[in-house]
Design a protein that fits this description.
Layout lengths: L1 H4 L8 H10 L1 H4 L2 H7 L1 H4 L6 H8 L28
Length: about 80
């Protein structure tokens, strides 16, 4: 267990555990609504996780997310295109 709890070790998982405790615990309260109405409907007014991420790390000027259909739409221009 020691290497997983030592911040100087490559196998350290403390950041992951902190994330689970601090960032995801409030989402458990939404579980019933997710199951009853669906996640998209419940989170309709919230920013997407991608928007939150790139605003938090001041990446909004450098990144853009485009929803499209790979098979029918033209690819957006850019230096890097990621699919996921």
């Amino acid at each position: 267990m020691r290497p997983y709890l030592d911040p100087s070790d490559d196998r350290y998982i403390g950041g992951f555990v902190d994330h689970l405790v601090n960032e995801t615990s409030d989402q458990i309260t939404r579980l019933t609504a997710y199951l009853d109405h669906g996640k998209a409907e419940v989170d309709k007014g919230l920013p997407s996780p991608f928007e939150t991420f790139y605003r938090t790390y001041a990446l909004a000027e450098r990144l853009d997310f485009v929803a499209s259909d790979f098979f029918t739409d033209e690819l957006p221009s850019g230096e890097v295109v990621a699919f996921g």
